[in-house]
């Protein structure tokens, strides 16, 4: 797995789409640029797209700051997005894709989204995708600015996050947290189920009593149904007789109606017959009318044809005369055109003869010109060759002159160099004396700084010890506060639960809960309800079981102000079927005389309440005695006592009944009496915990204030020490540089003396070479002059040939012009002849066209005369046909009038029959209404039987119910109804509810057992997860420690370092400390905090490389980790970097030249416009090649 591409758009200083492509799976990529150009924004983009939520980590104060905010020249954008493409060919990421693109968008509206391969996902999906891959949250894949020092200054407990990521135990921690949540949920469910189980036990007793009442009620309802079914059966018999009488009358009336319908059908048949004949006559009349219209149309057409033919004959005769005149004119024109054609033919013959003669002359002159041109070309070629030779001589001369000038220049340069070197030697001598003086001064300053550093380190060690002591004291206080806070939270949660149960009256009967819900809803008549007995009494904890046993269900008795309130509440419960309740009303309960038992204590003495309720409590507990145990209860005299109860809840009544046994799991949760007591106790505990927390907060604050003071002094010492250590490094570097400069000066002096000797030898060589070049120049000048003379002779011969060629060309031009003119005349004559031929052909075509038109006109005149004659013969025949058709129309109209009169007679007969039929149908309707009433009564009985007894009419008639005395049976029915009415309301669901609650109790107990088992399983899972995580952490820690020791030695060229787990007994929570011994430092390894700034940075880098070695990540991004290192240490770091680059993709942001020297590819950042970053990329091999070619 490795990075392939990072794409930014609208992110911070990258408003335009910017793409960084990482082509190599391994190697080092550098990102360079001036300060403030946006280099670190690329690191922020990596963090942001991988799910970073901390705005502070992204170097901002608000989420929208990641969006480009605009500049003076550019508007802000509305969205920022970053896409990171990862090569997943090795399937390191848990998806099936070989390439994974992770994206993140944020809009100015505050909306955001995460994407994986273009699909919108949750932040959790991105985090789980990257978890334990070496690039997840808390990993070392991205090392930002100053993060190296942050790692060093962080607490040991915080430092372990890097090791957890390397060990890959984050998934175990995540699973452990999820399992702990499940465990907490299971415990809450178990507590809740225990309360529900108690409530069910309390409800079972009242439900059993209600179920017995419901069974009795069902028996009475069954008896009532038998009697009512018998009465209905008798009533159905009477209705059947009445129904048969109505059926007989309906049948008679329907017979009369049927006879009347037959008569009406005959009349309708006759009427339809007359209508059909009238329709037939109407069709015939319409046909006659159509024929008459057709004859009239034919008459009009014939008259029109006569007029048209007559007019056409006149027009054709006029056109015929005009055509004969046009034919005569065309014949004359043709004769004139033939005469002109013959004249033009003679002219063409003469022109052709002249053109032939000119062409023969032109051919002779062309031959002469060709000979002259060949001679001219030959001379010209000879001149060209000579000039080419001359050019070569000239170039040789120029080269020789250039070399000679170069030698002169070189001679001057060498002379100048000799002078410069002599001056430089003098300067080097002075500089060497200055270096010796500066070395003395720096040595004295170094001794003073070393003494100051030792003093500051001693004081710093003292402050660190004070800080460690105070830190331990603060941890103890915090642990104590955490324990108290945990108890405070537990008690608060318990208090909230109990108060909620008290407010909702959980554990009380349904009727009691309904009453207080109605009071809460301000239902009329409930203002006199003040509470329940359990709420108005206070009982010491040791007597709670005894008082609960003595009162039993009376604990849930509702306390009312008066009898009127009780009556209104009971009515409300009945009307809305909300259950039952027991009431204690003022004036109704008579207080029993207080009994002083011979042994034990009176129950009334251990109970306290408000004055207004004392009569209630005296009536309930005045005759109850409390003893220690059952044995004592059995031996206690019951004279005057209603019952004796024990502290554990056994009861012995005055009637000799004994109640006892195990209370079971239903008593595990808080009882009704204990609920109020526990609420008071919990409030007292919470007040004490609040005071303790406040006291501890004050103490912790004081310690932290002292801690801040120590930190400030440490910070002050650290700053001083840092400046002195920097000065130490600067002095050491200056001394080393002076030593190097002194050696360099000595080497330069020796080199300059050697260079003087070389330059003197060069001067001698240049003098010899100058003489040889001068001799060669003289010889070349003589050869050039001879060539120039020969070229002049050839140019004279070329001018003569050129003159002859010009004369021949002028004569050729004259002949060509004459020939061209003759050809033009020839073309004009040919065009004229062609025009004559076209005109003759056109005239002949017009003559033939006119002749044809004449023939057509004569034929058309003959046809028109024929039509004229035919029209004159047809008109009299059409007039006779019209008269015959008019006679037929009159006859048909007379026959239609006769049928219409017959139809009116039958209409009168039909009206008389309809009047008689309406009277019969009215009587039939009356009987049918009576039948409907009978059927409605049947239907009402049917519905009542179906609704009340689920029986049909057939079931009732077939039943064995017999009524001997109808009136007596009705009396019995009324008695049963009254008895049932007195029992109501009866909770018929109580039978099912009782069985359901028993089943529910079994189910709840099973659920409790399952939850206990689940709780055990979850605890085992947490234990296994802890063990697996510990093993993985220890294994990784040991590997990292070994790599850390090795890399530390490589970077420091000696020394020793190791990592230590501070608390071996708690590996998963323990911090990790770093101990190191640098070369030349103290003999014993000490905490990393005691090292110098540069040593700390190098140690942190060694730790990061050790983590990469233990579990190489796919890539690592480092932002200016070399900031606190000098060039020597950077060189050591780059050696390690090159080693890691062979197996890990490294991306570094730097501005140090030594670090740039090892990168394989560079991305350069610039800011051509304020607030807008641009990027260019270049592979170093390509850059080097370009430089070499240049």
From TrEMBL:
<dbReference type="InterPro" id="IPR003395">
    <property type="entry name" value="RecF/RecN/SMC_N"/>
</dbReference>
<dbReference type="GO" id="GO:0007062">
    <property type="term" value="P:sister chromatid cohesion"/>
</dbReference>
<dbReference type="GO" id="GO:0030261">
    <property type="term" value="P:chromosome condensation"/>
</dbReference>
<keyword id="KW-0963">Cytoplasm</keyword>
<comment type="similarity">
    <text>Belongs to the SMC family.</text>
</comment>
<dbReference type="GO" id="GO:0006260">
    <property type="term" value="P:DNA replication"/>
</dbReference>
<feature type="binding site">
    <location>
        <begin position="34"/>
        <end position="41"/>
    </location>
    <ligand>
        <name>ATP</name>
    </ligand>
</feature>
<comment type="subunit">
    <text>Homodimer.</text>
</comment>
<dbReference type="Pfam" id="PF06470">
    <property type="entry name" value="SMC_hinge"/>
</dbReference>
<keyword id="KW-0175">Coiled coil</keyword>
<dbReference type="InterPro" id="IPR036277">
    <property type="entry name" value="SMC_hinge_sf"/>
</dbReference>
<dbReference type="InterPro" id="IPR010935">
    <property type="entry name" value="SMC_hinge"/>
</dbReference>
<dbReference type="InterPro" id="IPR027417">
    <property type="entry name" value="P-loop_NTPase"/>
</dbReference>
<feature type="domain" description="SMC hinge">
    <location>
        <begin position="527"/>
        <end position="637"/>
    </location>
</feature>
<feature type="coiled-coil region">
    <location>
        <begin position="239"/>
        <end position="403"/>
    </location>
</feature>
<dbReference type="InterPro" id="IPR011890">
    <property type="entry name" value="SMC_prok"/>
</dbReference>
<dbReference type="Pfam" id="PF02463">
    <property type="entry name" value="SMC_N"/>
</dbReference>
<keyword id="KW-0238">DNA-binding</keyword>
<feature type="coiled-coil region">
    <location>
        <begin position="679"/>
        <end position="793"/>
    </location>
</feature>
<comment type="function">
    <text>Required for chromosome condensation and partitioning.</text>
</comment>
<dbReference type="GO" id="GO:0007059">
    <property type="term" value="P:chromosome segregation"/>
</dbReference>
<dbReference type="GO" id="GO:0016887">
    <property type="term" value="F:ATP hydrolysis activity"/>
</dbReference>
<keyword id="KW-0067">ATP-binding</keyword>
<feature type="coiled-coil region">
    <location>
        <begin position="826"/>
        <end position="860"/>
    </location>
</feature>
<keyword id="KW-0547">Nucleotide-binding</keyword>
<dbReference type="GO" id="GO:0005737">
    <property type="term" value="C:cytoplasm"/>
</dbReference>
<dbReference type="InterPro" id="IPR024704">
    <property type="entry name" value="SMC"/>
</dbReference>
<protein>
    <recommendedName>
        <fullName>Chromosome partition protein Smc</fullName>
    </recommendedName>
</protein>
<dbReference type="GO" id="GO:0005524">
    <property type="term" value="F:ATP binding"/>
</dbReference>
<dbReference type="GO" id="GO:0005694">
    <property type="term" value="C:chromosome"/>
</dbReference>
<dbReference type="GO" id="GO:0003677">
    <property type="term" value="F:DNA binding"/>
</dbReference>
<feature type="coiled-coil region">
    <location>
        <begin position="906"/>
        <end position="1028"/>
    </location>
</feature>
